[in-house]
Amino acid sequence: MKVETVIEDQLNKLLEVKTDDQFTVEAVYYRGDTLCVSSQLGCPVRCSFCASGMNGLIRNLSADEIILQYELAVEDGLDIKNIAFAGIGEPLLNWENVKKAFWYFKEKGLKCSFYTTGFPVKHLKELLELPHNGVNISFHGVDTQKRKQIIPYGEPLEKIIPVLKEHLLKLSNRKRKMYNIAYLLINGVNDSPEELEKLSQIAKELGIGISLLKYNEIEGIPYKTTSDEEYEKAFLFLKNKGIRVTLSNKYRTRKIGGCGTLMVNRLKTAKEC
């Protein structure tokens, strides 16, 4: 494997990591201390807003391939203190390899956080018990059919919420601050007052915050971003409900840093495969 810097601005650095079998996978270095790593080539969950899963799953990354994203980035001169399992793929669907990589990073003294759809639930239970530094559960829809539209191959919230509730009840308020509902606001899709009201009720019930993400438009996907005015309005609505809400930071609003923007580039043609 080797790493190449393919896009860089003042805030983000996009790294292409080339695998031995002639695929490339993307990792993002941001904030001057964090590397967002990928866990799969492609993604079987295939969120409808996401470029990463447009072609489904190619294969899982090995633990060594996940770790090499970090090692090659360090060789490239990057100072890394935090690892975010938030790149291409659903970490829980490559759980054994992700766990091996997680423990390697922890032994290096790195802080590790996760973004996950919560699928499959059996691995979500184990993830919640790890000595992680944060877990964001991607909801993106609170209505059963709407969530199915946005996350076609994910777990229904009816299975995820009881698992979260059982775990969170054991935690102090301070430790609950490591957990958030990730909610990607998509114009005209999941941003109605009724949906935001239900979202606030779930967050209150669980006693955790909401990471309210702004959608980055992607060529070939029909979804549209919410205007800055509507985004702020949704933020204030949730905040006024007494919810701890965070907005997409400046690193995640860049073209290469937003939710669902990373892609796997197949270097082999369909005929060669």
List keywords for this structure.
11-stranded mixed sheet; two-stranded antiparallel sheet; 8 helices; disordered C terminus; 273 residues; 24% strand; 13 strands; alpha/beta; 31% helix
Walkthrough of the structure:
- This protein has 273 residues and is α/β, with parallel strands linked by helices.
- It has eight helices and 13 strands.
- Strands 1, 2, 3, 4, 7, 8, 9, 10, 11, 12 and 13 form an eleven-stranded mixed sheet that branches. A two-stranded antiparallel sheet has the order 5-6.
- The longest helix is centred in the last third of the chain and has 14 residues.
- The C terminus is likely disordered.
Q: Indicate the overall shape.
A: globular
Continuous helix count: 8
What summary fits the major beta sheet?
Answer: 11 strands, mixed
User: Low-confidence parts, pLDDT < 50 over ≥5 residues?
Assistant: 251-259, 265-273
Mean pLDDT: 87
What integer value in Å does the Rg equal? 18 Å
Broad structural category: alpha/beta
Strand content: 15-25%
How far from one another are the termini?
Answer: 19 Å
**Quaternary status:** single chain
The proportion of residues forming helix, as a percent range, comes to 25-40%
SS elements, strand count: 13
| Pattern of helices and strands | EEEEEEHEHEHEHHHEHEHEE
Topology of this structure?
Elements: E1 2-8, E2 12-18, E3 23-30, E4 34-37, E5 40-42, E6 57-60, H1 63-75, E7 82-85, H2 95-107, E8 111-116, H3 121-129, E9 135-138, H4 144-150, H5 157-168, H6 173-176, E10 179-185, H7 193-206, E11 209-214, H8 228-239, E12 245-247, E13 265-266
Parallel strand pairs: 4-7, 7-8, 8-9, 9-10, 10-11, 11-12
Antiparallel strand pairs: 1-2, 2-3, 3-4, 3-13, 5-6
